[in-house]
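Retro notes - structure team

What went well: the batch runner handled both jobs without manual restarts.
What didn't: labels got mixed up in the shared folder, which is why I'm recording both outputs here explicitly, each with its sequence directly above its tokens.

Job 1
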Amino acid sequence: MAVAEVCRAELIAVGTEIVIGQIHNGHAREISQELAKHGMYVYYHSAVGDNEARIMETFSIASRRSNVVIATGGLGPTQDDLTKEALAKFLGRRLVLSQEALADVEAYFQRRGRPMPEQNRKQALVIEGGEWLPNPNGTAPGQYVFDNGVHYFLLPGPPLEMRPMLQNHVIPRLVDHFGGSRKLVSRILHFCGIGESDVDANIADLTCKDNPTVAPYAGEGEMVLRITASGPTTEACWDLIRPVEEELRRRFGRFIYGVDDDSLASVVLTRLNATGSTLATAESCTGGMLAEMITDVPGSSSAFVGGVVAYDNRVKASAVGVRAETLAAHGAVSEPTARELAEGVRERLGATYGIGITGIAGPGGGTPEKPVGLVYIAVAGPRGTRAYELRLHGSRAQIRIRSCKQALWRLWQELNGDSVAGADTQTGRGEKG
């Protein structure tokens, strides 16, 4: 029985602006995901600047280890657009003018009532023996060349031009050649309140599997597990994923708050809406970041009443109602202050729940008694107020992000009736979750 050829794809992003970090290489993720949907896998990603010799070298390396090479960028009309020229030189082929491609480029300018600049003729040059790929959204036709067992695709850099070409010309050709019969499906489980190492130590029997695979990933203030299965159909993939997900939920159910595109903010808002409840926030060290996380979720206005950035003690007192004697006796960074922030903003904004956050995000401002990373969170609601002490580690940005996620996590527990009974003070060591 003949064995079908396996797609071993490689992606090359061409552009100095990518190499020096001015723009993000979003194509790598998008093209990888699209190929995976059709059971074809990307083995390598690389980026190279606008230098002909280095682009040729990158094609040379790719040709020795991959049978599909997709390059994006460098197809424009200017002198530093060199992708096509570099591939032609590497393959030892000429560039020839395609009258069809030229007519397509000229038509693009005619539709806009403008004459085509002479330098745009360069975009109608096609590698000898290759094919040009029409680009209805721009002036840079794509290219397809097959040489010595390798399929080369050259696509324009602008996303609105690249995507249609990928969907209409690259994917169909690859599926026709490689079959694309196998599907790839992933399930993401989101965890909070537990460290990555604690999870990893208890899933060795699952991470050793080949299909489905289980892989942990750390995030700021939380972690995720990705379950990925391949199979002849999407349903066959899900048949492999379901028992693994069920087992993970059996082991870690109380720490799993969502799946796939869920976020802590989105699941909290979903629960608030389901119960007809509302939320208000009062933030000190996080400076409005919690409110931003919440309002990043579309439709958040249905449950989020509003927030107060109570950075200065005078604002804590005047806007939220923290008592002067509380601040004098315990300081701004204290459990009593967090409680009064939560209770005060809940009362003043007329919300079902209130969250208060106060702490020392650093890098300065800490003392031996109150070090950087000391954060107090309080959640006030119909069942009373619970406060939590966190001792977080990391940069100022990390401490602020982790504080916000811990606040949402504590509220999520409260909304699910899963808060820690009889333990109003918790210590969070800040290990990624």
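Job 2
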Amino acid sequence: MNESQNTIPHLFRCPISLDLLEDPVTLCTGQTYDRSNIEKWLAAGNLTCPVTMQKLHDPSIVPNHTLRHLIHQWLQMDPQFDPPTQTTTIDSLAFLRDTLASYETTSEIKLQALEKISVLSDEYCSFKKSCFLQLDFLPLLLELVFGREETQACKTNHMNFIELALCCILKLLPLGNLEPLNMIKEESKLATFVLLFEKGSSSVKTSLCHLIDSASSSSQTQELCYILGHCHKLVHEIVQVVSQNCEASEDAIKVISALCSLQSNKESLVRGGAVEGVITCISSGSEGRNLATLGMRTLEKLVEVESGKEALVNHPNGVETLVNMVFRVSDQDCSESAVEVLIIVCGDFGCAREEAIEAGVLTRLLLLLQSQCSNTTKSKARMLLKLLRSKQTGEPKQG
């Protein structure tokens, strides 16, 4: 920065971006921010003042005409001053990074720094993205979440920091380089990851699910995907979330599906109870969440291994749940997946065929054939009918 940029009066800087205020507005707490920055903060659902952390009894913002006039006068007095540049942005982010990295910084100050980073990371301009990459924010945040001793204790007063740090990590992941995620392969960090999944809030569990999903989708983190899929305690915790039919259940099912991207993970997931967990979740009949199609597609992947078929057939409600999903007027994708899974298990298990027929699958298949479903779904329905009828009459199974 040139000398004039170094001398911007403290009161003329936005506390969030640390840049010169362009449109100063004041909250009920008396703190002033640039309008664009504080509006993003409030739009993200924050109900506190970023500087004082006081709750806002009145979220309205008031233009600070006096301060705007003073800034205008100051700019006229210093014609050499240039508006904040890329250099000031780098310096602002570097300051925030140093604040987070310092062991001497208090938890409260670190939390405030994270809140500012969260707001800045929402501004997806190419330059800001390069700044975050250049300053290695992702490795630092991952280290803060999974590498610090205080995190491993899962202290209640530290959970807000964890939630916000994970939120920032997820915002930075789309920048492209997922290599830093591989630090989770370290034994201590993996243990913290599992502990957070076990003890964390619903928000933390959801964020961790998104992290696993990202790791499962990149060749850079294929080994990490394998390690996560074979971590029995983590798989158990994921299945627990699925079975509880809670807010994070849908994300947990997505994680099971994502981990299935590696064939070698499927056996581990089945051993961990993934099939039983998915069936329990989709058979609960919960309203307001589209879990049926997601669950059926996940079961399609799990029954590709023999143990997955056996787990489904041995589940007390497994085949019946599939039959109930065969004819869903408002969800043709779910119907197609259910028919596909039934073709697989009924082709190999006589008990599955008998149970499906007893549960009324023939009627549902006939209704499905008379519906407006796709030709692919109808073709699969005919295949299943042919399979069931051939087995009933003792004729050899035909393709």
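One thing worth noting from job 2: The radius of gyration is 27 Å.
We'll revisit the folder naming next retro.
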